[in-house]
Design a protein that fits this description.
138 residues; alpha+beta
Length: 138
């Protein structure tokens, strides 16, 4: 009897059903993760674009403050589009930008830039301290 069970070859119908069931469960698990993957991908894209805009705004304000020949920029609220245009192109999302410049005295200023986007009212914020540099005069 032991020899006859060892000589059987092939796969039984029960084994095929179990394998198909496990494969189906794995596919359904992957499909259920898809909506959250799309949502996180969108958040990641928005955050990446906002951080690029934030860095550009900080650098622009820093360059203006460092040059003593240029008047200090005023506090600003504007909308920036990732395409770099002044108006939205198809598919562009508006990024409201708030730039605040605070005089700290002793020829130094604190620049704070905050960038938000639709669906995120908190956004991201970064500050830096900048001083005038006579060597940057034109």
């Amino acid at each position: 009897m032991c020899a006859s069970t060892l000589n059987r070859k092939g796969i039984s119908l029960i084994e095929v059903c179990v394998a198909l069931f496990l494969l189906g469960m794995g596919i359904f698990a992957l499909i259920s993760l898809q909506p959250s993957a799309w949502r996180l991908s969108g958040k990641s894209d928005s955050l990446g674009r906002a951080s690029g805009i934030l860095l550009a705004q900080l650098q622009a304000a820093e360059a203006k403050i460092m040059n003593p020949d240029i008047a200090l920029p005023a506090n600003d609220r504007s909308t920036v589009y990732p395409g770099g245009q002044s108006t939205a192109k198809r598919g562009d999302m508006p990024f409201p930008v708030s730039t605040t410049i605070t005089d700290l005295g002793n020829n130094t200023w604190q620049v704070t830039v905050r960038v938000t986007w639709p669906g995120n009212t908190t956004g991201i914020r970064q500050s830096m301290i900048v001083s005038r540099q006579p060597s940057f005069a034109q």
